[in-house]
Design brief:
Helices cover 28% and strands 31% of the residues. The chain has four helices and 14 strands. The longest helix has 22 residues.
């Protein structure tokens, strides 16, 4: 092999290495992401877990798959699920009959062609009995629940948080108005000293006589 062939061979190798680096290197245009666990304090065996996915500019990312896993102190998986984020960037997961104890909560987003992956792990305590879920941003959760109102799994989450988000009921207002009206009607009735109802009397001109 002469000098000219060596130069050509060397150039081919360099081009191949550069091309491989471009193909396998992560996209430099992919945006960074972050996950936040919105629950604060202890959990209950049937708590609802809320996690939020956002990009580097804190813009909510919707319709992204989030993987959630709960493992006990012996590293046994007691709960695992994959859910999509809503319009608010929040993903909702409902636990079912988790025993009291200490657990590790792992949340992961794998990323895609536009966004890098990210993950977060947090130690959590599950207590016995009914535990009221506490979240960092209740307004955000209200928006998420409203966004999920047609989804059956989200309906159960909304139900579990009813102590936090109780919508005003127009029917209850009507009921209150009805009872108020009924009360006013009963107050126009007259009774004698024995408690018997006495119907009002009217004169010739139609005026009520007391």
């Amino acid at each position: 092999m002469d000098k000219k062939e060596l130069i050509v061979t060397g150039m081919v190798i360099i081009i191949a290495v550069v091309a491989a680096g471009i193909i396998f290197a992560p996209s430099i245009s992919a945006n960074d992401t972050s996950i936040e666990i919105l629950n604060k304090g202890d959990l209950g065996g049937n708590s609802t877990i809320y996690v939020k996915l956002a990009d580097g500019d804190k813009t909510s990312l919707s319709n992204k798959t989030i993987h959630i896993k709960l493992t006990d102190e012996k590293n046994n998986v007691v709960y695992e699920d994959s859910v999509k984020t809503k319009a608010t960037g929040v993903a909702i997961v409902k636990l079912h009959n988790i025993s009291a104890g200490q657990y590790n909560l792992d949340v992961k987003y794998d990323g895609d062609e536009n966004y890098t992956g990210c993950s977060i792990s947090q130690k959590v305590t599950v207590k016995q009995g009914e535990v009221q879920d506490v979240v960092e941003n209740s307004t955000l959760i209200q928006q998420t629940l409203a966004d999920s109102q047609d989804d059956s799994s989200s309906q159960s989450s909304s139900s579990s948080s009813s102590s936090y988000y109780t919508p005003s009921s127009s029917s209850s207002s009507r009921s209150s108005s009805s009872s108020s009206s009924s009360s006013q009607d009963s107050s126009s009735h007259y009774y004698d000293v024995d408690g018997n109802e006495v119907l009002p009397e009217y004169d010739a001109d139609g005026r009520q006589v007391n």
